[in-house]
Specification:
The structure is a single chain. A hairpin with a 4-residue loop joins strand 12 and strand 13. This protein folds into 6 domains: 57 residues, Helix hairpin bin (Helix Hairpins, Orthogonal Bundle), CATH 1.10.287.610; 216 residues, D-amino Acid Aminotransferase, Chain A, domain 1; 86 residues, Nucleic acid-binding proteins (OB fold (Dihydrolipoamide Acetyltransferase, E2P)), CATH 2.40.50; 70 residues, Orthogonal Bundle (DNA polymerase, domain 1); 71 residues, 5' to 3' exonuclease, C-terminal subdomain (DNA polymerase, domain 1), CATH 1.10.150.20; 68 residues, Rossmann fold. The strands form 5 sheets. Strands 12, 13, 14, 15, 16, 17 and 18 form a 7-stranded antiparallel beta sheet that branches. The longest helix is centred in the N-terminal third of the chain and has 20 residues. It is α+β, with helices and mostly antiparallel strands and 652 residues long. It binds 2-(butylsulfanyl)adenosine.
């Protein structure tokens, strides 16, 4: 073995201080100054000295944290003060009810709330006496837990000695970082929470140590401090790792904004969270509100709905979209996902079905994220006798033989008069984000197409009151409403109109880019392939598709008919030239005003809002408790602005 015994004791003591500094930078502040390899090198130097001089081992040495003896069995630990659980809320209505309850109980009082992420791990209580870690226990039933001090001591981010010799109980959540789980434990445990639980309940601390557990604290029991946020700040000054992304909210809107910010940042974290916790900030208010039998009245967990569920794939249906593309759709045994019943989910295309090995009759995992269409992620249990599935050779709606789309895995029905395409185009044309014609739903479009009253969008404008009234369940009033909605839709913004035309790959954003680039419908119709490629944010493939659509006789006829109605799109007014025109911004953390408000102001000044940190980003605006975006932006050398700096730059 290499001998580092050239070190004297003074140098060794300095090395321990240095190592502990780097441990804090890495685990508590998330801002390492040296690489893992450099850290390991220093660590091994300390270890070598300790092996050569076992009697001189420093009590604060980080090498200690993986020591300890295995225990025979867990001993019960009676909590000095019980660890309550939290009530749950799931919706804005329930949040309002919580707010009302608090304000009824504390009338005429300005109540401030502390908001923080709800960590998805295991609750523990940890005791320090005169600044030294003496005990750690699981929550158990709230009154009695298990003594897991030997494993708690292996958590590198948790100091064995505080910066002050205080006696204090702290509480928090033990968890495993996603990165750790994914690299070492994914095959042994279902999720990071189970892996953390399994690791914390190891009898041998060496195993727990090898799992790299982590902790964030969210509560402290210590006299003389008046508010929760000051308590957490105090824990930080003691050198303890405290839950990040905290904020204070005096109004209901602020609470909502803080919870939304926590939710939006969910995927950025290296740990799992399952909601936000809302706590009354002042301890005297907390005391006045007290507890119910199970939980405090002064706090609640605003839980994110689960976004995934398992159900049976009953059949695979084929849907023909407005551009004729055939999409396999899962017919599911209805199941609740994020509070909504789901019975259909997309399977994308046949290649995905084969790649994921999904078969009819399987138990599948379904996901619904935000407003996106639900999708089938993968099979969790194969059907005993799976029914094989193949894509059809003919359009299931009009029986035309299907063709393979160039460059794509998709199959397409090439018949522009296929009722599925006609209906899809019409539905898209009247939809809210397109021409926004109220009152024309799916059932009405079905009738219009079946009765041969409408083939192209312009036909909608030719129908008179009598035509509309001839439809099933349509009274004179509804017919009048539709006629006036259609009349109102005749002067759309150019971006909306281009979007309404339903060109493949042209979503709202691309349509706006085209409108801003060409300014008039005539210019857009005459676009050359070259000019399309030169449009900002439009790739070659999209440009090619737009160009060939513009040249297609069917498309030209439908467009001419719309112009003859007449539909007169309104040119976009160019955004004023400002110092931030065209610059890309992203916001992270909590600012003094709601995020959407700031984003709208930025947009009105010609700036763009980016969706993630990338080299294309110009500025990252950083509020309180920023997430990992900050480190990413710094690594890429992107300019970071605090809120006052940003106000100066943009709104002077
Ligand atoms: S405060 C009296 N804050 O959630 C208040 N709990 O469902 C006690 N949890 O047992 C809890 N993150 O394990 C609090 N920021 C946070 C939390 C948090 C996670 C857990 C904790 C508790 C459970 C209740």
């Amino acid at each position: 073995m290499l001998c580092y015994c050239h070190m004297n004791h003074e140098q060794y003591t300095a090395l321990i201080a240095q190592l502990n500094h780097h441990v804090t930078r890495y685990y508590t502040q998330d801002q390492p100054e040296i690489s893992d390899a450099q850290y390991d090198h220093l660590y091994r130097e300390a270890l070598a000295y300790e092996q050569a001089h076992p009697l001189l081992v420093h009590p604060d040495s980080p090498t200690h944290k993986i020591g300890g003896q295995a225990i025979e069995k867990f001993t019960p630990f009676t909590h000095t003060h019980p660890l309550p659980s939290l009530g749950n809320i799931f919706s804005e209505d329930e949040l309002m009810a919580f707010w009302d309850r608090i304000h009824k109980a504390l009338p005429d009082q300005q109540v401030t709330f502390a908001i923080e992420p709800k960590m998805d791990g295991l609750a523990v209580s940890i005791h320090y006496e005169n600044g030294l870690l003496v005990a750690g226990a699981t929550r158990g039933d709230g009154k009695t837990g298990e003594n897991v001090t030997h494993n708690i001591r292996t958590i590198k981010s948790l100091p064995h000695r505080l910066t002050q010799p205080v006696t204090i109980e702290v509480r928090g959540e033990v968890f495993l970082r996603r990165s750790v789980f994914n690299t070492t434990l994914k095959n042994s445990f279902a999720n990071p929470r189970n892996a953390a639980a399994g690791s914390l309940r190891q009898l041998d601390p060496k195993i727990a140590a090898s799992r790299n557990l982590d902790i964030f604290l969210y509560q402290g029991l210590y006299p003389g401090i008046e508010t929760h946020h000051e308590m957490l700040h105090f824990l930080e000054t003691l050198g303890l790792p405290v839950v990040p992304q905290r904020s204070l909210a005096p109004t209901l809107a602020d609470i909502q904004a803080a919870c939304t910010a926590i939710y939006d940042n969910k995927k950025e974290n290296d740990w799992e969270i399952d909601g936000a916790v809302i706590k009354v900030d002042r301890f005297d208010d907390q005391q006045a509100l007290g507890f119910t039998a199970k939980a405090p009245r002064w706090a609640t967990a605003y839980k994110f709905e689960t976004e995934q569920a398992v159900t049976q794939l009953e059949d695979i249906l084929i849907q023909v979209g407005r551009t004729g593309v055939l999409t396999p759709v899962a017919a599911l045994t209805p199941v609740k996902v994020s509070g909504v019943m789901v019975s259909r989910a997309t399977l994308h295309n046949i290649e995905e079905i084969h790649r994921k090995g999904i078969g009819i009759g399987d138990q599948v995992l379904v996901q619904r994220a935000g407003e996106v269409i639900p999708e089938v992620l993968y099979t969790v249990q194969k059907a005993p006798h799976p029914t094989p599935f193949t894509m059809p050779t003919h359009c299931p709606i009009c029986q035309t033989p299907v063709i393979q789309v160039e460059d794509l895995v998709a199959l397409r029905c090439p018949n522009p008069l296929c009722p599925a395409q006609v209906k899809g185009q019409l539905q898209h044309f009247v939809s809210r984000k397109a021409m926004d014609v109220e009152g024309i739903g799916e059932a009405i479009i079905d009738q219009l197409v079946s009765l041969n009253l409408v083939k192209i969008p312009a036909d909608l404008y030719r129908l008179n009151a009598q035509d509309w009234e001839s439809l099933e369940r349509m009274g004179p009033q509804s017919a009048q409403n539709i006629l006036s909605a259609l009349a109102k839709s005749k002067t759309p913004g150019l971006g909306r109109f281009i979007y309404a035309l339903g060109i493949s790959l042209v979503g709202e954003k691309t349509a706006d880019v085209l409108a801003e680039h060409y300014l008039t419908l005539e210019n857009f119709e005459a676009a050359t392939l070259d000019s399309l490629i030169r449009c900002p944010d439009i790739g070659e493939k999209t440009a090619g598709l737009i160009y060939s659509t513009l040249q297609a006789p069917g498309f030209q006829a439908a467009l001419s008919a719309l112009k003859a109605v007449p539909i007169s799109p309104v040119s976009p007014t160019p955004a004023p030239e400002t110092p931030i025109s065209g610059k890309r911004f992203l916001i992270t953390g909590t600012l003094s005003r709601p995020r959407p408000e700031i984003e709208a102001e930025l947009k009105s000044r010609g700036a763009k809002i980016a969706s993630s940190v990338s080299p294309k980003l110009d500025y990252l605006i950083v509020g309180d408790n920023p997430g990992s975006k900050l480190a990413k932006a710094q690594a890429l050398g992107i300019q970071v602005l605090t809120e006052p700096e940003f106000e100066l730059l943009t709104f002077k």
